[in-house]
Amino acid sequence: MAIRIKRVYEPPAPADGFRVLVDRLWPRGLTKEAAKLDLWLKEIAPSHELRKWFHQAPGRWEEFKTRYRAELKTPAQAGALATLRQIAQERRTLTLLFGAREEVENHAAVLHDLLKSRR
User: Fold this and answer.
1) Measured between alpha carbons, how far is 37 from 18 in angstroms, rounded to an integer?
2) 114/109 Cα distance (integer angstroms)
3) 43-to-1, 22, 46, 88, 98 alpha-carbon distances in Å
4) How far apart are CA 19 and CA 28, in angstroms?
5) What confidence tens digit (pLDDT) does each residue in 29-48 have?
6) Mean pLDDT value across residues 17-21
7) Confidence class of residue 64 from pLDDT cuts 50, 70 and 90?
8) Strands 2-7, 93-98: pairing kind
């Protein structure tokens, strides 16, 4: 089983396996047909408040990860995380799609690390 992350704006590829958009907001300028999603799991995304806080100032990555992991323990997000874990166990490849320009320090990276550490 492989778990990958990828910008949703990159072209879909057969190697992506099961494609899950993990953003709360739909990516600008992208049609649903072009996205080629298997699932849009917006409940797993950081809250609007956390996302806004994170983007207001640079250097908040470590604190963001801590706060986001805490949010993932709330009932709504815990259920969504359980869904992702189930998909990861059932599929050969799971690709977490995100729209952020930042390709390293984003919530999909946090999800990736959580899913990989609890396999």
Assistant:
1) 8
2) 9
3) 24, 8, 8, 17, 13
4) 18
5) 999 999 999 999 999 999 99
6) 97
7) very high
8) parallel
Question: What's the rounded Cα separation, in Å, for the pair 86 and 102?
Answer: 27
In angstroms, the CA 8 to CA 70 distance is 25
pLDDT over 90 at 103, yes or no: no
What is the arrangement of strands in the sheet containing 39-40, beginning at the earlier edge strand?
2-7, 93-98, 18-21, 39-40
Is the alpha carbon torsion for 45, 99, 113, 55 positive or negative?
negative
118: pLDDT confidence band, cut at 50, 70 and 90? low
> Which is nearest to 88 in space by CA: 26, 24, 31, 39?
39
Q: What values do phi and psi take at 39, rounded to 5?
A: -160, 140
Residue corresponding to tokens 């799991």: 41
The single residue listed with the structure tokens 């494609």 is 19
pTM exceeds 0.90: yes
With tokens 């990516």, the residue in question is: 27
